[in-house]
Amino acid sequence: MALRLEDKKALVAEVNEVASKAFSAVVAEYRGLTAGEMDELRKNAREGGSYLRVVKNTLAKRALAGTEFECLNDTLVGPLVLGFSLEDPGAAARVIKDFSKGHDKLKVTAVSVGGQSLPASDLARLADLPTREQALGMLAGVLQAPIAKFVRTLAEPQAKLARTFAAVRDAKQAA
């Protein structure tokens, strides 16, 4: 069904707004997927904090103009789905990577982060980035480690004294 001019303008504006807020983008070819599989992919994207949209390539080029994902224009060939990570940089990549494990027909064409277009082989690197909660947990662990070691160091002389007294007590009881 052909889109009217107003619908096309609204679609371009919507994708442009999402692209201007997104951390990363994934372009994948969906040729051969059924409508049910596409619905499943969209559902997974919503649950994963990503925006997924099938857009005609000419409209996608207009929508990406003026955003950091303009570098993807050369890769927009064929039936493509655009995925944008809205919560953390690896969200869309994780959704596409997990879905493509069970569906060979979904092929990643390009990945973009920080205004750079990356090859499809970098999808795994992007998908393996920690989520915000994981990164904060890792940071808390790094910040907590020196303090914990300092406390253990301060407590060690008393613990050593207690072990020495226990060893002397055990030796006297055995004798």
TrEMBL record:
Pfam entry (one): Ribosomal_L10
Keywords from the UniProt entry: Ribonucleoprotein, Ribosomal protein, RNA-binding, rRNA-binding
Transmembrane segments: none
Record-level GO BP terms: translation
Origin: domain of life: Bacteria
CDD domains per the UniProt record, alphabetical: Ribosomal_L10
A GO CC term attached to the entry: large ribosomal subunit
Recorded GO MF terms: large ribosomal subunit rRNA binding; structural constituent of ribosome
Similarity annotation: Belongs to the universal ribosomal protein uL10 family.
Role summary: Forms part of the ribosomal stalk, playing a central role in the interaction of the ribosome with GTP-bound translation factors.
Assembly and oligomerization: Part of the ribosomal stalk of the 50S ribosomal subunit. The N-terminus interacts with L11 and the large rRNA to form the base of the stalk. The C-terminus forms an elongated spine to which L12 dimers bind in a sequential fashion forming a multimeric L10(L12)X complex.
Protein name: Large ribosomal subunit protein uL10
Organism encoding this protein: Abyssibacter profundi
